[in-house]
Every structure is written in C-alpha cells, then in structure tokens.
Structures
1.
Amino acid sequence: MDLAFVLDFLRRLAANNNTAWMQANRADYLRARDVFAGLVAEVLRQATPLAPELAGLTPAQALFRLHKNDRSQTDPEPYKRRLGA
C-alpha cells in the first residue's frame, strides 16, 4: 500500500486545486483513490467483527467524493484537499 503516493498527490492537489490540473493528473488521482480504497477495505475487514453492521459494505460504498458540491459557497477550490470514507 503506497500511502506516500496518496499523501504526495494530496499535497500537489492542494497546491493546484483547479479543474485543468485535475484533468491533467487524473491517472494519479485514480491511483491515489485505489490505494485509499485498499486502506478502507482493510479497515472494514478488521472493523466488521466489532461492528457487524459493516458486513457487506464495500470501499466504493464508503468513499466520499473528491468534488466539492458547494454551489452557494464562494470558495474557488473545486476539490477537497483530503480523501475520506
């Protein structure tokens, strides 16, 4: 699991938080998302015995969107600076 890559991607996103940069770096985003999904899968696997309601939940169902949906906000950044689940 290459968490260093994920952190590097998020640092670069924070410095270049715009649609043009994101389109040019989409492959890196997809790789970072896949690595993070692997981490979420491991957390779900270990947490399920403690919280049976998590059984059957997939990483894809748990991941949050990277796009902001703040139509009423004046924040010019279109993407969150973090991955979340």
2.
Amino acid sequence: MNIVSEIKRKKGESFDAFLRRVKRRWQQSGKLLQARKIQFFEEKKSKNEQNKNRVKYIKKVAKTEYLRKTGRLREDPLEQKKY
C-alpha cells in the first residue's frame, strides 16, 4: 500500500479545513491505520543472523567472565560509578 498521497489545497481554503479534509481522507482510505501498524514493525531475523548474534553474546559473556576472574573487572559494575 502506498502511504504517500498527493492532495492539493483548494483555492481560498484555510489550512485548518485542508488539514481536516486530508485527515478524513487518510482515515477513510485506511492509510493512517496502515502507517501506525508498520511504524514499529521489525522483520524476523534470519536463522543465520540469530546465530551470529548468539555467538557475539557468548563471546562477550566469556570475555567479561575472564576479566572478572583475572581481577581486571570489578564484581559489581554499579560500584564503579561514584556520584
């Protein structure tokens, strides 16, 4: 569905009236509802991309565990921040 629509202002029509007419037309055509539906839609990630993210996460966890065990990282990250 094409979300973009071309509606021109009539001669002598106030901007408020034009805006009301445009909104009504969008509402009736279903474009407003469609735009709201797809606004935050994210496609499902492919299996390959999911596996890459999983491997990246496992590496990150392993690195933090290694740093914690060697004493280069504090146990509680909240203790590091002193306000």
3.
Amino acid sequence: LFEGFLPPKKGRKKRLNALKDEQATIIFYESPRRLKRTLKDIGEIIGDRPAVVTRELTKMNEEIIRGTVSKLLSYVSKHEPRGEIVLIIGKPDPNVFFK
C-alpha cells in the first residue's frame, strides 16, 4: 500500500491510526529530519512491525537497513540519515523477523 508522505503534524497520527489494522506492506516517503518522529509514531500506533529504511535508492550511496520499527528508531538515533528516504513497514506477521 503506497502512502507517499504522511501529513505534517496535524492529521499525521489520524492517518497512522487509520492504517494500524492494515495487513498489507505500507510504503512511505519521509524526509531525514522527520524520520525519527515518524518511526516513533509508527511504533506507538501501528506497532513494532518488521520494517526497512532505504536511503538514496538507485544512487551511488544507496543504503538499506532492515529491522523492526524499534530497532530502526535506535539505529537512526545514532546515525543521522541524509538524502531521500523510503520507509517500508511490513505486515504484522510473527514469522517475519530480521536479526
């Protein structure tokens, strides 16, 4: 399910609440400066699902980080992201996990 950018501030949590029971993979665009806040909100509202943060896809500095929402939040708190971000939230499946 492609969502594009979440609304800034107002309406952001409302949109995430509407997605919390979604069984499909959800794809967002996000800015580096809002990524931590978005991961925090997703963790609180949608849950600690499997997730992927991608940066600079199809470019020389492409980076793909896999984990759960909470692990990705921890990672981006220590490594300030830069560039174009695509955030992929997996379906709530207990058989899907990343080490």
4.
Amino acid sequence: MSSDTHVMEFRVLVETNNPPGPDVLDIDGMSWTLTPPLDIESATIPPYVCISYTWGDQRDRNPLRPTVEMSINTLRVVRAVVSQFSGKAIWIDAFSIPTDPLRKRATLESLGYIFSNAEAVVAVLSAESAYAIQRIDALLTGVQPGHAPSEVPSDVLDVLDMDAWIRSVWTYQEVVNSRELYFIMGTGPSTRVVEGEHFLNILGHYYTIFTRSHHTKSLAIQAEYPYVNSILDLLAEWQMQQSHSVMSIMSGMNHRVWTTPVNYFYSVIGSITTQPSRRPVQSSVEDLAEKTMVISETKGDFSFIFAALPRDIRPGNRWRPQPGVLNSILTSHPWGYRQSARRVDGGVVLENVVVLPTTDEEGEMSEEAKRYLSDLISSNLFGDDLDDKNIAIEAYHIFKKLGFLGPEEWYMTTDGYFYPFESLPNGRGRRICISGELRWVFGAPGLALVEYEGDMCYTPGIHLGLVRSELSEILLH
C-alpha cells in the first residue's frame, strides 16, 4: 500500500490461527484479526461483506482500536453476521476505519468504493423492526393478488418509521452501492436472514395495501410515513441498479438523521461516486459541499442546482447554491438520471429544459395544462373535493408536509403553477425554467429567473403541472 497519507485505508476482519492477544477477537470460539492495510489495486483483497448497522448512544472499549471507542452494538452485529455468513472477511466501520485524521477522511470519502466492491452488504435490524417485518410477512401469507388481508394494522409501519437504521444518513449509500443486500433480523438466537428483494416486495406490497385500505392520499401517506417511503424508494433504486441523480440522493437524505453535517456529505459523496478518494478535503461543510458539487458536475449532473439553498453571490456562479447541506426542495423522490448542463465562460448552459413566462406577464394557463391538472384532481393524488381553483393551495399544504420550506405563494404559468423556495424579487422578465429530465408524478423541479437591480436572480422551486416534450436550453450566469 502507498505510504501517501492522503489515500484511503482498506482493512478487513479475517479468521486467524493466531493465539489470543490484543490484536485478536474471539467471536463465539473463532479467532478474528484485522488485516494490515491492503493494496486496493492488487488481487489480494479477500472476498468480504460490509456490515450496515447503527451505533446508538452507548459506547464500549474498542479491543482493536484502543484509542477510540466503539458502539455497544458492534460485537453483537459481528457475531450475527459471522453466524450467517461464514468464510467471508468483514468490513465494519468501528474496526476498519483508521484513526489517523487524513487517512480517516480519505476512507470516509471512499465509502462508495468500499461498499460497491463488497460481495454483499448485510444490514442488521433491531428486534422490534425484525418482528414488524415478520408480522407483515405473516399477514400477507396466503393473500391472493388484488386482495387485502383481513387486518391491515398501522403499528407495524409505525415501528419501521421509527427504526434507527431506516432513518440513518449512512443507510442510503450503504444500500444503493450494494451488489447483494441481506437483512439480518435481530441479533438473538432466533436470528434469520431476509434477502433485500424479498424485504422490498413484502414491505412495498403491504404499504400499497395499507394506502388503499385506509383510503389515504398517496402523497399524504408519504408525509405520514416519510422514512418507510424513503426506504422503499431507496430499495427500488438499488434493485434497478441504475445511476441516480444527485437530486434523488438529496431527496433521499433530506430527513435522515446524522450527528454532524460532515456525515451527511460522506454518505452523499459515497452515493455519487464509487471511486476511491485520492485527495480528501478538509472536513468542513463548505469544502465537502463544494467537493460534492464538483464530483456531480464531473459526472454531467447539475441537479444540485435545485437544492433548497440561497444562491452563490460570485459572478458567473449566481445560479449555483451556496456551499451548505444540500437539502432537496422536496422529500418526494424525483425520477431521472441527471440534469444536463455544460460550463461556459461566465456561467453554465442548462440543457433539456422548458422555459415559460409567468401568466401575469403573458397570457393564461393553456387548455392542455388545465386538462393535466384536472387529471391530477381525478387521481386523488392531493385529496378529494378539489377543483381547478383550490388545487394550488391544497398542493402547497401537501408540499409543506413533504419538506417544502417555501412561502405560501405561487405563480401561474401557461403550463401550471410554480412554488418558489424564496419569495421572488419584484424585478423584470420573470421566467420559470423547468427540468425536462427530472420528474415527479405531479410535475418537475424548476428555477425562477428574475432580473433585479441589474443582476439575474435565481430561485429553485416546484413546478406543478404539465412538462412538455419540446425542450430547449438557457444560459445562466
């Protein structure tokens, strides 16, 4: 391995014949030790699995890293994985992440590489969540397609929505990068293993049945069970094994739990790239946010432009979010692989967009857009008893429940309504730029452009309505 302190460190737990000592763990009668740092460019890395779990609040002495503590859960989850996945080396954060600050940062920036190269990721759920999944499985057993079980209780979803692993910020990149995914249900004597696809199928099926049985609006249930909805979206992305936009990552991270903002960025970076870090940045929010956006740009994805943040004030970068935690405009999952753009002198050209004036400056909403909104009303996506006049306000209240932080104002365009993240300045030439590559079932993310006091101002927001197929591009400064 390179002596460069700026590169990641890769070490795994392996079985050993070494006698008991300070560098040997006894796991149910078997001896395990931590390998020396391995050369990731060589073929000497043993087949390994990554453990995905939560630390909780309680700490214990770390037998292999005596200068730092570990979670009281660490040895318990290692035992559970060893009992079910014999013969595999194990990567687990408490032992595998180095303590040297530079190597630690490089390793944390390389989590996408580590998890994507594992043979499998093994998630360990709490006993309460394991029991909830077991109950769901039992409730669905023998139910014919198109039918519902005799009872559809909400308490199982309540338990899962409170689960620390499902809520964790680390979970996103650990799942989305996995080749194979398994869930270990509990860490006691009745431990069992559930494949990731089966977990998705039974939870997704039950979630759909629950929505129908309780006559719940599909967007309203997203607000009621945001973490269950988020894990279903995440598992669907994992199952499709396709690239995902940074905006979909942002929406999946929006309400997740982290102890410090840098953990948010390490998980985001690991979700965007599976390349090992060669030059880690300082662990400040600003540096990590900047690195996240640069990596995304390098991949041709500028969808971070729709982050719910004020804009940069630097000339040529006024379209860009200020470096900070990249909160999504909504927690609702957007579909699409990227927002295309290209850098030019003095700014960026946003590609594959629809550019519309607001109707107070030019015309009314088109009949085609009115029909689209009427279809949304008929679908009960936002609720019952809606008409063309109150869909705008009802949608706003639903958006608020889905994490939207904008003011209670919206602007009519020829194709629908636009809800800005911040109040728009009273300037000239107001236009709404709508993504043609990223979609929600009810519209798409967008950007308002207003000329104010000689400068162009940019504000992200939500477009509710029709997204036309005739796309163009626009220069942003």
